[in-house]
Amino acid sequence: MASKGIKDAVAIVGMGCTRFGERWESSTDDLLIEAVGEALDSAGVQRDDIDAWWLGTLGSGQSGLTLSRPLGIDYKPVTRVENYCATGSESFRNACYAVASGAYDRVVAVGVEKLKDSGFSGLLRADPPSDGTAAELSLTAPAAFSLLDPAYTAKYGVDPIAMREAMTHVAWKNHVNGARNPKAQFRKEVSRETIEGALKVAGRLGIFDCSGVSDGAAAAMIVRAEDAYDYTDRPIFVKALALASGPMRGGLDPAYDFTTFPEVVHSAADAYAQAGITDPRSQLSLAEVHDCFTPTEIVLMEDLGFADRGQAWKDVLAGEFDADGRLAVNVDGGLKSFGHPVGASGLRMLYEAFLQLRGDAGERQLGDPRLALTHNLGGRPGGCVSFVSVVGNERG
Amino acid sequence: MSGAAIGLVGYGAYLPSYRLGSDSGVRGTRVVASFDEDATTMAVEAARELVRTAPGSLWWASTSPPYLDKTNAAAVHAALRLPSAVPAADLVGSARSTFAGVRAALASGGLVVAADVRIGKPGSADEKSGGDGAAALLFGESDLIAEVLGVASETLEVLDRWRDPQRTTGEQWEERFGFEQYADLVRAVAARLLDEAGLAEADHVVVTSGNSGITKRAGALVKGALSSSGSPIGFSGSVDPLLGLAAVLDVAGPGETVLVLSAVDGCDGLLLRTTDLLPTRRAGRTVADQIAAGRAIPYPTYLSWRGLLDRELPRRPEPDRPAGPPSARASAWKFGFGGTRCIECGFVHVPPLRVCRSCSAVDAMETVSLADRTGTVATFTIDRLAFSPSPPVIDVVVDFEGGGRTTLEVADADPDRVDVGSEVSLVFRRLFTAGAVHNYFWKARVR
User: What is the pTM of this model?
Assistant: First the structure.
């Protein structure tokens, strides 16, 4: 295995997350102050106690100044990172490594995105000057992910109607979950009829098959594991941090069939090895996964090892990933219902893991969770970056 | 050149698939270019099957140039993957430019290609009786499909058709005035050419003109022994005489004479005699077949394509203009659809890459153009959110015969005709225009 990992070397002792959604009243600065403030408060520390900062944002600002200016951070290192939709996870991953290296004792990882100010639907890309030929310049994200649906049904001989029902179940489930989350963008259950009858965006994907376009921020304070109990009685320990960036072979290779993300398979294998997980289905208590579009969540169940190949659609329909199923997936509503402010999403997933593992998840609290997985993806089928973390409430 | 007589080696014609629908008030035969076609892309389509070896020169004629201050023929040259030593130039302005191209190509064993998008004001004669398309003639020394018996011209200063360069639509004087001016010139040029060739009459006569009176009375002005015809699709500007000739060459027998007369600001004529090779070297699709293959589009859609109706676009940002240096570096890819094939393992990369995705060999690549390959649709989607001058966008993942995969937009998209397994070929189109830069690239077209 390529990575040694830093199992149980660092811990999360405080987290914050804004309400996600159409935050017309809040600027990027406001969202950062809100999320960081909550994270520092929950750890019982002040801004100036922090030794170094990591900021993840796709397009809501450039450089560390995007964070140091609104917070008034005095001459501390602030690193801005970007890794498509896995940006928030990347901020967290690098912050954890900084503490594990011994360079700093107390760091904060923040992620933020202010998507709603543009007036456009979906994500905006800030691409470098180009020859104008790349398909991703015009093919939108829903269109790129919609390719999973016909490919999956064709490969496994799934009746397209049954596949549509499975996609609908993902949206329905994540809306049910989001309705129980006070910070979610969409706090409403949506009927299966409404989901299936919605206006089509791309392929068979309707608007309810797509994640929310949102504003929001989330933050985590990270310390050395041995110091964790100085800040809280219920720290969360980092078991694994895995990132895989693909060679983008799928878009070039006729052998790729659009029913899997090889990057996810690789990052999951790496994370399970780091964390010592041999049977994710029985060892994990919950998973927060990158449900950017409903067929993505179905494919991820297989790539992450939660379902057998060609079977996830059935397991989804059987409710196995519902909040009361065998493995709760996106119990906080996921990207679908909690919303997807790109740079914040990876940290939002960790926020739910943090709440659940500490028993603070309120109405959606699961019974006695021990280990949580977060999965965050940036790019599209055929070429993406994939992040997988495992966190737990016991130090091994 | 060895000094052998230069004659016609081949011809090609391209007509877009769309026709004005009956809701336009025009009979459903008006040929209209798609939103992503222009005089450059259509010229490529007309010439690409024709050019097997490099011609001596490339002359591109149009009354509707996509660019000024930039040579449009250079993009055609790049898309045809011609050697840089082949000169390419534009002949732009009136429909008469085409004959300057014929003379130039004839002198050098070159290619002349004419292409036009003819726009008329809504309800105008140009909208009703014009036509969009492209046609090409290739001249050379050997394997002639027709000998050139003569070229002749008469020049006339006349105010019968004109256009402000700032505008897309033009003006015309009364048709009868132009007819009076042109009729004698047409007869005079025909007489000169036939006299010089020692012929009493030609077997086939084509008379084209921006003056509809001339084309309507083509047979009465100069009669052909076997056929007399005017413009096949209405006045198609610079394309008209070449398209008319192409339609005759589609059906003419060997050893027959063809007289082409084009009455624009004077009259130009070309007299040919076909050879025994013609029946084996005809264009792949006849002009008549292409005319018959069209399908109607709603009039409002047509008007928005031509910028005559400002339609609401998807709530997405407009794309950035393509940048000069990256486009220059990627010219073989962007214009020639050239990928790379790994010399070590044979894996084909579309677009080109330097590090092999299959065996990791570095810089062990040869360039290979897939522009003329066919492919199969591996999967596809209909994107209703993407920016397009004519949504929705249909995208296909194409696996090419002989290796290679890439994702492309579908041209002349009909969602009902695209499916996994559909066979596609490539067409040269304009993805979008941003910052006055036309983003030329290839699209897939369902066969």
Answer: 0.94
